[in-house]
């Protein structure tokens, strides 16, 4: 097949893909931490993403705080909400549901997501709103264009991912999280408080979503439905990488997904690019299913349930 | 009035689609969030053919169903080995691909979809107004209900539930798990396409947003809300979810702009609250409104029935001792019998490596008719691996396994089971949410009702065979002394009882050769005697048995011939007395000399 683009466009696509990928990667890292450790199908992750952006927006424009404090506060408030969802909704629900907990949590999370998105509509209105934070600046490097927000997004994504990876590898908290991920019941028997570890994972995971949301809001706008597409990407990236894998691997997978999406626009019209990602995903899952013995070792839960 | 009839139509159509999903989700345990997009296939096929070719919507619907059947069956192929999480992901991706393709295809109307479809014409009856649609959509819903009920509550449905509970042990009983999964995925997808076509005909449009993610989740929520595996619950769920909006608008006076927002908030919170209060859904599996109205409440199974229960004693052993058969002469006797018995199953040179680890090497095992062979050896010697190799759960790298001269290597566990070689599992693997009777019925072979075609066209045969199956299963439950527990879900039994039911289940296959993996481990002595008596009775009936067992008393009592296994190899064979008198083996097994 002939490459239908010149080198300049290709460079721009790569740069765009990389920055977009940093967002996917960060979303994936947060979602993988939640799903991999707690096993909760947290579909309300998209809502916490939206909520972080709106809280930061509110702190900036209603409370008149400067941008940075309001961004930090917005992310933290959302993270508290994420942790509260686990503590107040998922945990009692899962305890009650027993063997069907996974689907029950999934449906409850769907419900929370729907309710949450509409609460946002109710309080902040349905319309799209611009978030003017720091001045937007464009950089021109090697015939490519990108924004200061892009750089911050990439930097924050990489820093958070590395910090999380270091935490998991070298701290007591990390060992606790990993032990819970491998086997929560066993972790309990050696005195690890698995329940509060779950809450911590929700807190940390939601921070990842919140940070990604802030940069999206600055680059584009805030709107009540802004979380619906990130949740899908978070989902895809986390699974492609493997939910029990290192955050760094998840992050890189996010970048690769975005690059596939960007490059597919060379051969396919833009309206096909998202479909292309899902075609790759279906193909990948098919291959994994065929080689399922190798597959089983990569994730916490066995493929065939006993 | 017309407005409410419109909602009624919507309830019926949503229920139709949700029923198709419940067949897959509730009975077969296969999660799909792609059912809305299978509906889209039906809707778009119908819409496209009626717009461009003026086809009647019924013909278009049939085409859409066929298409969805094929696509659904293909999706089932990778879905076969995935857990719930991955199924959600896979079906999510598939539905995105289907919708993405529809959006990207100009002849399908792109982002706008197909709009302005002609009024549906049902044999000359033009369905224009909401009241025209009530009867057709009711009939459509009832048809799908009937199909799902027919499949779900039949022997086929029993197999589907078995797959849901434990695919490995379903396969070990001779069921073609692969075929059932593909078929049920295909049928369910075709029914979804039927409902989707109905929806498009009713709305007179087929657009990406109609069948979008929100709709997919609504359908999913209806099934979970109503109760998985309960079809009446699904209809109820559809009614609640659809009617929530208009009822809210009537009851709570809010301005129109905010009404839909508040409605969605209430709906979302209601889903979360319902899952908290009733995670198994409004109507749990097996609950029937009709039976409940007639006052038939499910019998509560008292805990003491399970805990205080003692197995019946068959007393073979006591009788033998009373008759003065001493152990030594008995053993010589059994050894002679082993030597005379014809070989039923013979393996030669069977081997298996996993990377550098030799799990089995050059195995030569003979099982002889009417005798019990035992496989003993230290933990990790590869005894269970031998069972996996014999039954095809693991394909050997080398060697052959012959049952009555017929080669078994290359067959899957279900085929091996149907040839007459059936195993039990060390960890029992009963179907926990099925009753003991159903567990045993599942094992009965040659059931007419386990075939979709017979189910559709030969009702009488299905009923007759089912009756025979039930009788046979009751007999085997009676044999192990568990008749009283026929209706009790297997998950409620004590461990010893599950061992008994598991034995009944293996026996009910009528297989010639039985491989029993630690049939008497982990239970107290009284129970051990009962189980050993049962196994001896089975031997007297002329079946061929091989047990894996750690307890040398058990082996000493049962085994006519013993194979000793170490590190994947059989290093000695003979009577148990011979083996225990060999100092080297005693050391390998007990760790002392």
- Write down how many β-strands of chain B occur, each being a DSSP E stretch of 2 or more residues: 14
User: How many beta-strand elements of chain A?
Assistant: 4
Low-confidence blocks of residues of chain B: none
Biggest interface, which chains? A-B, 56 and 51 residues
End-to-end Cα distance of chain B: 91 Å
Backbone shape of chain A: globular
Distance between the terminal alpha carbons of chain A, to the nearest Å?
Answer: 47 Å
Report on the structure:
The complex is a heterodimer of chains A (306) and B (593). By secondary structure, chain A is mostly helical. Helices cover 75% and strands 4% of the residues of chain A. Chain A is built from 12 helices and 4 strands; from the N terminus they run H-H-H-H-E-E-E-H-H-H-H-E-H-H-H-H. Chain A has helices at 7-38, 45-61, 67-97, 101-124, 148-170, 172-182, 184-189, 194-219, 228-241, 247-267, 270-290, 292-296, and strands at 129-130, 138-141, 144-147, 221-222. In chain A, helix 2 runs antiparallel to helix 3 (67-97). The longest helix of chain A is centred in the N-terminal third of the chain and has 32 residues, at 7-38. Chain A starts with 6 loop residues before the first helix and ends in a 10-residue tail after the last helix. Chain B has 25 helices and 14 strands. Chain B has helices at 2-27, 35-52, 57-79, 84-104, 130-152, 155-165, 167-172, 177-203, 213-226, 231-251, 256-277, 289-293, 303-307, 316-322, 327-340, 383-391, 413-419, 436-443, 452-457, 459-479, 495-508, 525-540, 552-558, 576-580, 583-590, and strands at 114-115, 120-122, 125-127, 205-206, 343-354, 357-368, 372-376, 398-403, 406-407, 421-423, 513-517, 544-548, 561-566, 569-574. Among the domains of chain B are: 2-208, no CATH class; 321-419 and 544-590, P-loop containing nucleotide triphosphate hydrolases (Rossmann fold, 3-Layer(aba) Sandwich). In chain B, the strands form 4 sheets. A 6-stranded mixed beta sheet of chain B has the order 10-11-12-7-13-14, sandwiched between helices. In chain B, strands 6-5-8-9 form a 4-stranded antiparallel beta sheet, with helices on one face. Chain B has a two-stranded antiparallel ribbon with strand order 1-4. The mean pLDDT of chain B is 84. Chain B is elongated and about 90 Å long. Classes of the chains: A mainly alpha (306), B alpha/beta (593). Chains A and B meet through helix 3, helix 4, helix 9 and helix 11 of A and helix 3, helix 4, helix 9 and helix 11 of B.
